[in-house]
Amino acid sequence: MTVSVLLVDDEELVRTGIRAILEAQPGIRVAGEAADGAAVVPLVRRLCPDVVAMDVRMPLMDGIEATRAVLASVPDPPKILVVTTFEQDEYVYRALRAGADGFLLKRARPAEIVHAVRLIAEGESLLFPAAVRELAAAHGNQEARAAMERARLTEREREVLLLITRGLANAEIARQLFLGTETVKSHVSSVLAKLGARDRVQAVITAYESGFVAPG
Length: 216
Description:
- It comes from Streptomyces gossypii.
- Pfam families: GerE, Response_reg.
- The chain is about 55% helix and about 15% strand.
- The protein is α/β, with parallel strands linked by helices.
- It has two domains: about 5-125, Response regulator (Rossmann fold, 3-Layer(aba) Sandwich), CATH 3.40.50.2300; about 140-210, Winged helix-like DNA-binding domain superfamily/Winged helix DNA-binding domain (Arc Repressor Mutant, subunit A), CATH 1.10.10.10.
- A five-stranded parallel β-sheet has the order 2-1-3-4-5, sandwiched between helices.
- Strand 4 (about 80-85), helix 4 and strand 5 form a beta-alpha-beta unit.
- Helix 3 (about 65-75) packs parallel to helix 4 (about 90-100) and helix 10 crosses helix 11 (about 200-210).
- The radius of gyration is 17 Å and the shape is globular.
């Protein structure tokens, strides 16, 4: 299956570089480009990309508002990969909180960029570096704690959530817990449903904000 990508960044040089990296790979094509978040929704509707690789800081509409706009107005939204210069950035956290599926540093190696796009397209989450985990924990709030209490996760579901916060994919969780991959998928779906989380990233944020797990 070919993964189609929409590139959104106000720096043409960045878009050109990422396009060259992605289009050199089999099974990935760049469907289009935009220089600002304000153009994202119309392009997503027209091009139907699988992944939007989007800068978090742009002049007219930043990646946070563009993420919200896509999720609010597109029936079957693409995965959103936030691309940023600094990992310990309040903007990154806010974009993830708004519904982005992961983030990538602009200084990442070509292989890491390709891996991130493919992983996001498959519905997996990217490992949160320590800086972002600390940001999430610092934003602890009663809403997240209440969501965790309401969820009433089983012991197995709590184990699965803990491994999700460590960035493990379903197959890795299955090996860790000596379970079948389909069983793990079922547990992950149950955890997301109970937490009211759109995806794994939102579940991880809730886990840190609620104090269920602490950085480190």
